[in-house]
């Protein structure tokens, strides 16, 4: 079993904690709660934790842009594993509170967005207030009968809140994808379990920017992968922050960078890019 230390977006009761706790139960390790996604990255780069669990995207609400931006801003980071957690949102309040008493609903913006249809239909007049985490929202709900929180069932257990409604996201499949990031030169030891998976289960992530910003440039980049029959699983653009209209691309691909066909495609993309970085090749863990 591993003795690595993992930083996650706390406090206890968040979906991040649920994901990393399940992972550690399987592979070992200990956890440290961080106050924000920036704090996670800072803890990793300052060697206060070995790896950081970063939320990357949600199946309903899309990418977590701050995580993408921080990966770009910190070239010393490398991705080592993907963790996918199914998400179910609950409406939580103090025991005995009735629906008509609720005047304010608190939660993280992602949780509110995932529960948007339910909240719009059932709490049209309630004030929606964003918090840094779902756990922070639970604390708000615990303090006042007029408040409710959106979050996980674990929050109900930790803060002794009552479940007023469940499955707020409806019938849509809701899952969040996390990645474990560490410094490239970090010695993670021989028993870290990070690379355990069949070769077919690996994913490779890169960041790149074209040498020239002109029509067809993205097509040329993607064409290099098509020539080698490499499947793309995701592509996302973010502003370069250098000048208006310039973008960098985050691309996820099936396979490991050591594979001959993928390696060849990556070399070709590198030739036509002004910026190229291999974030890592890593396996996936699905939390049931």
TrEMBL record:
- Reaction(s) catalysed (UniProt annotation): prephenate + H(+) = 3-phenylpyruvate + CO2 + H2O
Residues carrying the site annotation Essential for prephenate dehydratase activity: 176
Q: Which UniProt keywords apply?
A: Amino-acid biosynthesis, Aromatic amino acid biosynthesis, Lyase, Phenylalanine biosynthesis
GO CC terms of this entry: cytoplasm
InterPro entries with a match to the protein in the record: ACT-like_dom_sf (IPR045865), ACT_dom (IPR002912), Chor_mutase/pphenate_deHydtase (IPR008242), Preph_deHydtase (IPR001086), Preph_deHydtase_CS (IPR018528)
PROSITE patterns referenced in this protein's UniProt entry, alphabetically: ACT, PREPHENATE_DEHYDR_2, PREPHENATE_DEHYDR_3
Any keyword Lyase?
A: yes
EC nos: 4.2.1.51
What pathway is it annotated to? Amino-acid biosynthesis; L-phenylalanine biosynthesis; phenylpyruvate from prephenate: step 1/1
Q: Which GO terms describe its molecular function?
A: prephenate dehydratase activity
Q: Please report the stretch or stretches of sequence annotated as the ACT domain.
A: 206-283
One GO-annotated biological process of the protein: L-phenylalanine biosynthetic process
Q: Which residues form the Prephenate dehydratase domain?
A: 5-183
- Give any Pfam family that matches: ACT
CDD domains in the cross-refs:
ACT_CM-PDT, PBP2_Sa-PDT_like
Report what the protein is called. Answer: Prephenate dehydratase
The encoding gene = pheA
